[in-house]
Specification:
mainly beta; 4-stranded antiparallel sheet; 3-stranded antiparallel sheet; about 35% strand
């Protein structure tokens, strides 16, 4: 562990495979929330996994999930990537994310995986967990995780047919 006035670096020389959790607790911090940034770097063969969830802000439209899995010189294209969404009622659903250029991921076989995830009729908090399993270019196994939370407002359904007005417009329904 090494510290400066504005940062702390923690090195783990032989990390075990699996999911890790890092918790930061302020000792002499002011009251209220304080922004904290974490960066995790794998020095031997860095493979980065980054996720993004786009939402409309209201229930009834799909969540657009994109996850990029990259090595320094190229994307990891052979991974199995899934997104599990837990809705406000606690129901969990899992979808595959694809790297085919047609699911909100930039282009086919570029290491960017995407999908539109439905079942968002409830207002409230949705937790999206992305899990990627694959192989690095050197053949070593890799796993990456990302988690995001989005909060959706109430679904607007002026005609009472059960389909959100925004979904009717987007998909040409009604």
């Amino acid at each position: 562990v090494s510290e400066t006035p504005t940062s702390v670096t923690i090195r783990v020389s032989t990390p075990e495979a699996g999911e890790w959790e890092l918790e930061a607790v302020g000792v002499d911090a002011p009251a209220g929330p304080e922004p904290v940034d974490f960066t995790v770097v794998e020095e031997a063969s860095p493979i980065f996994g980054r996720g993004h969830v786009h939402d409309s802000g209201t229930a009834g439209l799909p969540l657009e999930v994109v996850f990029s899995l990259t090595e320094p010189n190229a994307g990891v294209t052979d991974a199995v990537v899934t997104a599990t969404v837990t809705d406000p009622a606690g129901v969990r659903r899992t979808w595959p994310l694809r790297d085919d250029g047609t699911h909100g991921d930039s282009g086919a076989n570029d290491g960017v995986y995407g999908a539109e995830l439905g079942a968002t009729d409830l207002a409230g908090s949705y937790v999206v967990e992305v899990h990627a399993i694959g192989s690095a270019s050197d053949g070593s196994a890799l796993q990456r995780y990302a988690t995001a939370e989005v909060v959706l407002g109430a679904k607007v359904d002026a005609d009472g047919d059960g389909v959100a007005d925004a979904a009717e417009l987007r998909f040409g329904l009604d």
